[in-house]
Specification:
This protein has about 70 residues and is mostly helical. It has helices at about 5-15, 20-45, 50-65. The chain has a domain at about 20-65. The chain contains 3 helices and no strands. Helix 2 crosses helix 3 (about 50-65). The chain is elongated. The termini are far apart.
Length: about 70
């Protein structure tokens, strides 16, 4: 299967899902991305508290969606 066929099949799968199912996937993907950003922050700043890591991670996620501070 080439990438175009794979993308077409994935779109077909999403189209068969309910809105609630698609929304669940969006939230799961957001949580996975947030966990990756938190791991990155922890790696870059190992001395920060968990609270500060969460704060910095959420800020990075928000900036990533708007492209600005």
């Amino acid at each position: 299967m080439n990438p175009q066929e794979g993308a077409r099949k994935q779109i077909e799968i999403y189209q068969r899902m309910t809105g609630v199912e698609r929304l669940r996937i969006v939230f799961e993907m957001w949580e996975m991305a947030l966990a990756q950003v938190q791991a990155s922050e922890k790696s870059l700043h190992p001395n920060l508290s968990d609270e500060e890591i969460i704060k910095r991670s959420r800020k990075r996620m928000a900036i990533g969606t708007t492209g600005r501070y």
